[in-house]
Amino acid sequence: GYGLTRDDMRLFWDMYLQAPGDVTHPYASPLEAKSLGGLPPALILIAEFDPLADEAEAYAGKLRGADVAAHVIRYPGMIHGFIEYLGGVDAAHVAVADCAAALRTAMGELPTAT
What is Dmax (Cα atoms) for the chain? Predict the structure, then answer.
């Protein structure tokens, strides 16, 4: 009921990892990295009812601990993947707008066409 099941996660890991031992590789599990220093600023969107919410919070904390700017936005009542429900879930529109605003900030305001 939360948009991400144990079977889904197994399928994704099977598709993503080349070998079972890769599960601890920092590219697959960033929390396993010795250091996250030097990474660019991050925007982390967290759905309230996402099974991965605690990991997202921990990742934000680890980034901040490495002096990397990490902005977290929480979406109450939302499930994993809610951003895919544009047109049906108001919070999805808000999340897309939040991402666009973060990109504008990161890239600097671009001149408008005249």
Answer: 54
